[in-house]
């Protein structure tokens, strides 16, 4: 059975506490750790064609590296949210409601946007 977010958060807090790491877990440093992990995930995809990525995802051992980087990102995001008193599930729920209004289906279906020039395109 999968753990709840609350249970995982408690487990992470205990893990850090047992190692006396709380003194290192300051917001700036947590954000830098998260960004570093996102970079490590990005490295897994660098220079790969769609075909190469498909092969990697079908190989359990190679896919495991990607899974571990995703887990590291979630780990740091959970710590950041806990330290800042953010209820991740609640803020995600709120953000989804905002996004539903911001991107109505009739205007957004099949459309991407470019944040630099504001253009919209279809794929």
Can you describe what's shown?
- The chain has 123 residues and is mainly alpha-helical.
- The protein has a single domain, classed as MazG-like (Helix Hairpins, Orthogonal Bundle), CATH 1.10.287.1080.
- 69% of the residues lie in helices and 5% in strands.
- The protein has six helices and two strands.
- It has a two-stranded antiparallel sheet.
- It is globular.
- The mean pLDDT is 93.
**Helix and strand element order:** HHHHHHEE
Strand percentage lies at: under 5%
Q: Helical element count?
A: 6
Main beta sheet: strand number and arrangement? Answer: 2 strands, antiparallel
What fold name stands as the CATH topology? Answer: Helix Hairpins
Give the domain tally: 1
Q: Looking at this structure, what is the CATH superfamily?
A: MazG-like
Q: What distance lies between the first and last C-alpha atoms, to the nearest angstrom?
A: 39 Å
Q: Roughly how many Å is the radius of gyration?
A: 18 Å
Largest beta sheet: what is the strand line-up?
1-2
> CATH architecture, please?
Orthogonal Bundle
| Oligomeric assembly | single chain
The shape is globular
State the share of residues found in helices, binned by percent.
55-70%
CATH class: Mainly Alpha
Helices and strands: which structural class? mainly alpha
Uncertain parts: none
DSSP summary, beta strand count: 2
Report the mean per-residue pLDDT as an integer. 93
